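ok, trying the design again with the full structure, not the truncated one.
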């Protein structure tokens, strides 16, 4: 997204504390709903898989959780953060941006891929499309106000690739439409590719942030 377009959403709006609190509440609600949506799959994984695999099951709500926690850093930035806290913030924000971009796009792609193979689009699907596109958009809008750098993005990429490997090695990927189950190999490749794409977009956003700061 061009930085000239992002200026429409300026600091006065995006960093307004009332707006940040509203964003925090919306993301918190979306995170809770997301974990509830994964409830049956989490229960199945708990009963049939090792417990350590549970953390890799809910993808979108975990991305939303990362972003929600990142908003807290924007609301209450540490005044004299130590190295550990700076590192924690960098990794958390890198995860928030990369995972929000990836799973925001992934969910929308799966919805429309299913529709292309005959699944009817219902109002819940459109709600999910809007909310997941919102995840990707807010991640791009807030990169310029975050403190993470390339190491945070690299940490996020490693997490995404690990998550992809767990999902498709142990069959704990997000529930798919039946129409898409015969395309699982292609979906796996798309998912890995989207991890790399999200990494690249985050790096480009960082580069744009750097140019803005130098102006």
């Amino acid at each position: 997204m061009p930085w000239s377009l992002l200026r429409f959403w300026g600091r006065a709006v995006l960093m307004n504390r009332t707006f940040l609190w509203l964003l925090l509440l919306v993301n918190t609600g979306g995170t809770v709903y997301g974990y509830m949506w994964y409830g049956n799959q989490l229960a199945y994984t708990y009963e049939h898989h090792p417990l350590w695999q549970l953390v890799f099951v809910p993808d979108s709500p975990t991305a939303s959780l990362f972003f929600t926690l990142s908003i807290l850093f924007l609301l209450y930035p540490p005044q004299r953060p130590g190295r550990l806290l700076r590192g924690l913030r960098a990794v958390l924000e890198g995860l928030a941006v990369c995972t929000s971009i990836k799973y925001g796009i992934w969910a929308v792609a799966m919805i429309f891929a299913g529709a292309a193979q005959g699944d009817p689009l219902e109002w819940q699907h459109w709600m999910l499309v809007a909310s997941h596109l919102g995840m990707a958009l807010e991640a791009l809008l807030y990169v310029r106000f975050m403190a993470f750098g390339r190491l945070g993005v690299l940490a996020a990429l490693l997490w995404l690739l690990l998550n992809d490997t767990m999902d498709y090695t142990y069959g704990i990927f997000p529930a798919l439409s039946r129409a898409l189950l015969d395309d699982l190999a292609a979906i796996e490749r798309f998912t890995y590719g989207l991890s790399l794409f999200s990494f690249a977009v985050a790096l480009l956003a960082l580069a744009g942030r750097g140019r803005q700061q130098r102006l």
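Keeping the full-length input from now on. The chain has one domain: 3-214.
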